[in-house]
Amino acid sequence: MFLVALLQGDASVTTVGRVTAVARPAEAALATGLAEVADRPITWPGLGERDLGPLRLIIAADSQDFAGLTRGRLPGWGAGAAFPGGRTIVLRADAGDVTGTLRHELAHLALHEAVRGRVPLWFDEGYATVAAGQWDLFDRLGVNLAVARGAIPGLRDLDGELRASRVSADAAYALAASAVLELARRNPTGTLTPLFERLEAGVDFGDAVLATTGFTLDRFDEAWRRSVRTRFGLVAWTLGAGIWFGMAMLLVVAYESRRRRDRPRRLALNEGWIVAPDLPEPEGETGPGSGDGTATRVPPEEVGPLDHRGPVG
What we know:
Layout: H1 2-8, E1 12-16, E2 19-23, H2 28-38, E3 42-44, E4 48-50, E5 55-60, H3 63-69, E6 80-83, E7 88-92, H4 98-114, H5 121-131, H6 137-148, H7 155-161, H8 166-185, H9 193-200, H10 205-213, H11 217-270
Parallel strand pairs: 2-5, 5-7
Antiparallel strand pairs: 1-2, 3-4, 6-7
C-alpha cells in the first residue's frame, strides 16, 4: 500500500490529542495545524456538537500521492476523501482551501457516525458542503448557470454527476447542497434536526424524508427541481440579460470612443476643400459645343498647366 510505503519512508507522524497526522516532512507543519482543527469538537447543522474521537489524518503532497492513497477510486480532481470505516481523512496539500476541505471531510465522518443506515450520495455530499460553510456565492452561481442551461438532473442522476468531470461536479455539488437546504426548508422547523433525529433512530432515509417533509423521495425530487427553477431561474435570466446589456454598452462605449478618436482626422480631411458655385452656361450653348454640332475651340494659350498635386487634407 502507498500508506505503508509512506510510513516506511521519510514520513512525519505527529499526534495532536486524538488525531494522528501523517505527512512528508515538507507538509509536516500543515499536517500539525490541521490536526489541531480536527481535534476540536464542532457543532454541525442538525446534529449539534460532536466529538469525533480518534482519527487519522493523512496529507498527500499532490494528485499523484492522493491517487496512491485513495487507490484511484476517486476522480483525479478530488481535494480530499473520508473513509468513515477506517476513521481516516486524506487531504491534498496543493488543492486550494485545505482547511475548508478538512471541515468538509469531517462533516462526512460526523454524518456517518450519527446515521445508522445508508444515505444517498447527493445527501452525503450536499450535507458536507453545507456543513463546511462551502455553500457560497460561487455555488449559487453554479446553480444559476445549471438552470440557465436547463441542466437540472434528478436526484438519482445527481449521484453520477458528483463523480463526473470537474465542470459537471462543480454544478452537481452546488445542486446537492441546494437539495439538502430544501429538505430543511420543507420542515416546519426550517432545520435538519427532525430528519437527523429519525435517521439516528435507524429510520430508512426515504421514510425519514416523508415524515419530515410530507413528500416521498420522488415527489421531493420534483418539488426540489421546481423550487430550483423558481428561485434561481429569475436570477439566471437576469444574469443572462445583464450580460447582453453589458455587451451592448461596451459596443456603445467603443463606438463613441472611436468617434472621438477619429474626429480630428475627419476635420482635417475637410480642410482645403472649396466647392465653387455653379456658373451659368453661356446663352445659346447647351454643352461644350456651340449648339450647332461643332465643338468650341479653345486657344492653346488659354489652357493652364495640369495640377498633379493631391488634395489638401
